[in-house]
Amino acid sequence: ARQFLQQLVSALTYLREGKAVPIIHRDIKPENILFVKNKSTGTLTLKLADFGWAVQHVPTSKRTTLCGTPEYLPPEVCLADRYSGAFDIWTLGVLMYEMLVGTTPFAVREDELEDDEDIQQAIVDKILSTKVIPVPDYFSDEARDLVLRLMDRNPSTRILLEEVARHPFLTGEPMPVESEDGPSA
Fold first, then answer.
1. 141 is catalytic
2. Domain count, the chain
3. Which end of the chain lies in a sparser environment, N or C, as judged by fewer CB atoms within 10 Å?
4. Dihedral over Cα of 164, 2, 170, 185: its sign
5. Which of 27, 111, 118, 137 is catalytic?
6. Looking at residue 60, which CATH number applies to its domain?
7. Over the stretch 107-145, which tens digit does the pLDDT of each residue have?
8. Catalytic residues per the record (predicted)?
9. Is 12 among the domain residues?
10. Is residue 177 part of a domain?
11. What is the pLDDT of residues 11-44, one digit of tens each?
C-alpha cells in the first residue's frame, strides 16, 4: 500500500504543480488507477486515468459541481458545499483505507436496498453520519494518523498534499513520540 500511495501522491503532485495547468481529478478510485509493468525489472508503476471529472485547480476559488463516485465523496460534496483541491485528499484517504482494509469505510449492504438511487443515498448518509473514521486496531500508528488526517471532515484542516508526501507512513520513518511536554525530537 505504501509504494502505491507514494506513487499516487506523486501523480497528484504532478497534476497540481507540474508544467501543465494545475488539476483536481475529482474521481480517484481503484477503477481509475492503472498499473504498467516494467518488462525488464518487473516493477509496477501506477498511472492515474479517467480525467472526465477533472478541472483546473484554482486555489482561490471553490467548486460546486456534484461529481465523483459516491463511496469516495468528501462530506463537503455530499452537503453540496463549495469544495477545493481538498476533494482529492479525502479521496486519497478513502483509497488508503480501502487498500488496508479491503473495503471503503462507507460501504453499504447493497442487497438490502432496492435500486442505485437508494444505494447512493445510503452511502451519502453514511458519509455524513460518520463523525470519526473507524480505524482497525491492526493499523500502525503511522497508518492511523495518515488516514485520519486525509479524511478530516473539515476540508480547511485536512492534511495538505505536500504534508502527505512527507508523512511518516509514506517515508517509512516512525511517528515522533510525544511526551507530556509536547513532541520530542
1. no
2. 1
3. C
4. positive
5. 27
6. 1.10.510.10
7. 888 887 888 888 888 999 999 999 989 999 999 999 999
8. 27 (proton acceptor)
9. yes
10. no
11. 999 988 866 678 889 899 999 999 999 999 988 9
Are 135 and 144 in contact by the 8 Å Cβ rule? The answer is: yes
On whether residue 29 sits in a domain, the answer given is: yes
Residue 180 above 90 pLDDT? Answer: no
